[in-house]
Design brief:
- The complex is a heterodimer of chains A (768) and B (115).
- Helices cover 5% and strands 55% of the residues of chain A.
- Chain A has five helices and 44 strands.
- In chain A, strand 34 (646-655) and strand 35 (660-669) form a beta hairpin.
- Chain A starts with a helix and ends with a strand.
- Chain B is α+β, with helices and mostly antiparallel strands.
- Chain B folds into two domains: 1-46 and 107-115, no CATH class; 54-96, no CATH class.
- Chain B has one helix at 54-70; strands at 3-6, 24-26, 32-34, 37-39, 43-52, 98-107, 111-112.
- In chain B, the strands form three sheets. A three-stranded antiparallel sheet of chain B has the order 3-4-7, with no helix packed on it.
- Chain B is extended.
- The two termini of chain B are 17 Å apart.
- The chains are: A mainly beta (768), B alpha+beta (115).
- Chain A binds chain B through residues 321-323, 326-327, 373, 375, 382, 435-437, 519-525, 527, 575, 577-580, 632, 675, 677, 681, 683, 687, 689-692, 695, 738, and chain B through 35-37, 62-63, 65-66, 68-70, 72, 74-84, 92-93, 112-115.
């Protein structure tokens, strides 16, 4: 009953509240696109010069703007980073204006000189927007521009260290991030060794990250949302691009299917060579690939259909040396995501736009081994095989409607439904033959299904008597078997404009996560379990409050912000001490430490330059993050595994000439916690017993690294070639990766291992 | 030692003192492996059965768990360390006693596949 009431309240509230703000202006609406390829531009800003009222385009490039009814004196200006500013006066009868922005040849936005720029406050807090030009300029590992590496540099995201491209946001763990690729949730977003993420930077159009103050349309994860939108494909011309790099090689094709109406984009990425064999001389075969396909069709000016597909896999094969005639083996570990979605975007009127999305997403992990032993002299044959799998699959449906009341008042409403299938760990072992006993066993945790419903609504009031408000509610219902959980989640961001350049913001957000990730892996292979919330381990919840001050000078060339937050996480689950969860199929109660509490607080500073020949930022974070479980560390509070007290992320990119650009990143972080035995003794049986102190009390030495990159563009009439040269770890810092102790007769020694020395790399890409 | 076949672990609890328990285990016995099979030489096997207190049982369990956790590798990552239980004030470990019975048997060396 309580749920129903909440939902009714939610619907009525969002419908009635906005009606209080009625306007007499006239409406201009339309779409903002790139004039060269027809790509819609997300987040382009439009404003009316006289009143200073404005808006930004949505994910479909659509906008609606109320302008005064007077003719002639009204002028609309449209701007977007990397494009030439446009402005014009609409005629008296014009109600629909589509804008075709010209990409600026110098890759930078001309500085806007205007006495009356848009004055509204950005209604977001705890969010970070990517600048595609910066991502393209990022000095990448082996020439790979990686979205997650870029996001790791922003304040609030912990610098993880080498060989880890997961995100740890404001004291959260890596499973607490919701990654959406064109609305498809992806579960494990790193390729082998975490050298690169599953997001191919070439096809990313926009990406937004939320670290707190979550918009109501997102839910299901505790710590962050990364919403990635890919390019739609060129509506007018065909292009091909080929990139050869040390780590991966890429192929991208795009072009019109029907000129101006339908387009395709396909990209394919594969590892160039057996990297691990060469770099670390490991006897492991390795392949990885990912493929993205996107199709879109403009049915009418008001209807558009999108299809997105992603498939990515990693596979490792191991060689067992042996007598090839008598012995054969096939050992393989593989994992990957497979996802597809279909989105229908319909504009009912200039005020109401809707999106209807259906899709499927699955993450699979498998370890397969097959052994065959032949003995020709005895005519015997023996076979052994084992299959271990751990999967999660989602089928989903999302309905979203945006309703604009005026330039200053907008609402978003919607419903999403996920049907999750969890198959946390399953083994089939078979053995047969002349010399072996017959074994045919099927072990593992049962498969479980869950229904996950969410209703959400949000009201955005921009600039009302100096205040801005973004208020949302989200009602969740999660049902797995006979167990069901519900949660009502209010979200709010309230901003107060102090001057035209200075604003103070306060936010609160409650989120939950109805599944738990069990993992003891910090690197490499994702042999993890995702299990649905259950009576003993209810959904994890987080309440987060943040306060921030933002200062954006009038020319909007720079942005400065200071933010402080407090986050309390409850019902966390982890593995109990020393539990081997891949082989021990006892009940969850035996292996789970439940009702964990996580506490995280911090201050974040950001100074960012967003326009001009040089852009970049300095982000600093001072934070503390802890965990407490009754079953771990004697019930005492201990520092979280990825707790860095201070970290600094700097990014700089400079357009040197028309063809040459330079970029650099520098990160610094105080040491992560680690554990080593403090002493040891031998018991009466002669076993060495290691004595540890409390959990995570020691600190690694600090981490810092400088990466630089140079990018040179060679432009012919028909093609563009880009040579990327980058050096990772320029001053060859030996950063700590793992600490190990080893005892000998001379005593015990502590060893520190580093992963990456100085690594120069080169990549070449050709677009035609 | 490779592992227990039955009971599931060689550390086990007896509920009824009259219960008859079959114990099966695998051990390496100095065996060497080649692609076509395994061979071992003649050796003596000492089997010791201990009846222990609850504290000793928990001590041994946590000790084994510590060993497994410390043997994490680079691919699967390191598990959090396990503390071996102890209740000696100002000292380490536990105070405990047990009764035992043992036997030594001679095992012939073998060549071939395990069955």
């Amino acid at each position: 009953m309580k749920n129903k009431k909440n939902i009714i309240f939610l619907v009525i509230g969002t419908l009635i509240l906005p009606c209080l703000a009625v306007t007499k202006d006239r409406i201009i609406s339309g779409v903002v696109t790139d004039s060269k390829n027809g790509e819609v531009l997300i987040g382009a800003s439009l404003f009316e010069k006289k009143t200073g009222k404005g808006t930004v385009t949505d994910n479909q490039g659509h906008y609606i703007l109320w302008i005064p009814t007077v003719c002639d004196s009204v002028e609309i200006e449209v701007s977007y980073i990397g494009y030439v500013l446009q402005s014009r006066k609409p005629t008296c009868n014009e109600i629909n204006i589509n804008w075709y922005l010209e990409p600026s040849s110098f890759n930078l936005n001309e500085v806007v000189v205007s006495s009356n720029v848009r004055r509204a406050i950005d209604p977001n807090l705890s969010s970070f927007k990517i600048n595609k030009q910066e991502l393209d300029a990022l000095p990448g590992f082996a020439g790979e521009k990686d979205l997650l590496k870029y996001l790791q540099l922003s304040p609030g995201v912990q610098i993880t260290g080498d060989g880890n491209s997961n995100l740890y946001v404001r004291g959260g763990s890596s499973d607490q991030n919701l990654f959406l690729l064109d609305d498809m949730p992806l579960y494990h977003v790193s390729h082998l060794g975490n050298l690169t993420s599953t997001f191919n930077a070439d096809i990313i159009k926009s990406a937004d990250m939320y670290l707190g103050a979550f918009p109501a349309e997102y839910g299901g994860r505790l710590s962050s949302v990364v919403d990635v939108r890919t390019k739609d494909g060129d509506l007018y011309n065909h292009h091909q691009s080929v990139t050869i790099g040390i780590l991966t090689s890429k192929l991208m094709l795009e072009g019109p299917l029907l000129k101006g109406k339908a387009a395709y984009l396909a990209s394919f990425r594969i590892n160039t060579m057996p990297f691990f064999k060469l770099l670390w001389d490991m006897n492991i075969g390795f392949t990885m690939y990912d493929a993205n396909i996107k199709l879109n069709y403009i049915l009418s000016p008001n209807d558009r259909i999108y299809f997105s597909f992603y498939s990515g896999d990693d596979a490792m094969t191991y060689d067992l040396n042996g007598d090839k005639e008598n012995f054969s083996s096939d050992l393989k570990t593989s994992w990957g995501n497979l996802a597809a979605s279909l989105r229908y975007n319909h504009i009912f009127s200039s005020r109401i736009t809707t999106n209807f999305i259906i899709g499927h997403s699955m993450f699979h992990y498998a370890e397969n081994s097959d052994l065959q032993i032949l003995d020709k002299s005895n005519a015997s044959e023996d076979n052994y095989s084992s299959r271990y799998t751990s999967n999660i699959a989602d089928n989903f449906l999302v309905l979203k409607a945006n309703y604009s009341i005026s330039n200053d008042v907008k609402t978003i409403m919607g419903y999403d439904f996920y049907y999750h299938t969890y198959q946390p760990g399953h083994s089939i072992i078979k053995q047969s033959g002349t010399n072996l006993n017959m074994i045919d066993v099927d072990l593992g945790y049962p498969r479980s299904d869950a229904f996950d419903h969410s209703f959400f609504a949000e009201l955005i009031v921009d600039d009302f008597a100096g205040f801005s408000l973004k208020a949302g509610i989200r009602q969740n219902i999660f049902q797995s078997g006979k167990t069901s959980f519900t949660d009502f989640q209010p979200r709010i961001v309230l901003s107060r404009k102090i001057t035209n350049e200075l604003a103070i913001k306060v936010s609160y957000a409650r989120v939950w996560q109805p599944f738990h990730l069990l993992s003891n892996s910090s690197a490499g292979v994702p042999a993890d379990y995702r299990i649905p919330a259950m009576v003993d381990a209810p959904p994890a919840k987080s309440n987060q409050t943040s306060v921030g001050i933002s200062y954006i000078p009038n020319d909007r060339e720079y942005e400065f912000s200071v933010e402080t937050y407090y986050k309390l996480m409850e019902n966390l689950a982890d593995l109990k001490e020393g539990v081997s969860f891949t082989t021990n199929y006892s009940s969850w109660q035996n292996i789970l430490a439940v009702n964990g509490i996580g506490e995280s607080k911090g201050i974040e500073l950001l100074a960012r330059k967003v326009k001009g020949k040089s852009t970049g930022w300095i982000g600093a974070t001072l934070a503390k993050s802890t965990r407490q479980f009754d079953d771990l560390n004697d019930g005492k509070v201990y520092p979280y595994k990825y707790d860095r007290t201070f970290d600094l992320g700097c990014f700089f990119q400079q357009q040197l000439t028309k063809r040459l650009s330079f970029s650099a990143t520098w990160v610094f972080g105080t040491g992560l916690p680690y554990n080593i035995p403090r002493s040891q003794y031998n018991d009466t049986d002669g076993n060495a017993v290691l004595v540890y102190g409390e959990l995570n009390q020691l600190r690694q030495k600090s981490y810092h690294r400088l990466d630089v990159g140079l990018s040179y563009k060679v432009q012919n009439r028909k093609s563009v070639g880009i040579i990327d040269f980058s050096i990772i770890n320029l001053y060859n810092r030996r950063n700590p990766y793992i600490y190990i102790t080893e005892s000998s007769s001379y005593g015990t020694s502590l060893y520190e291992f580093s992963l990456f020395p100085i690594l120069p790399s080169l990549s070449y890409s050709l677009k035609f | 030692m490779i592992g227990a076949l039955e009971p599931q672990s060689l550390l086990f609890r007896v509920n009824n003192p009259d219960e008859i328990i079959n114990i099966g285990f695998l051990y390496r016995g100095g065996a060497t492996y080649s692609p076509i099979g395994i061979s071992s030489s003649d050796h003596k096997l000492k089997i010791e059965l201990r009846s222990v207190s609850s504290a000793y049982f928990r001590y041994k369990t946590s000790l084994y768990k510590q060993g497994y956790a410390a043997n994490g590798d680079l691919l699967y990552g390191m598990a959090a360390p396990v503390t071996v239980i102890g209740y000696i004030k100002g000292g380490l470990g536990i105070f405990s006693g047990y009764s035992k019975s043992d036997t030594i048997i001679s095992v012939e060396g073998r060549t071939g596949l395990l069955d």
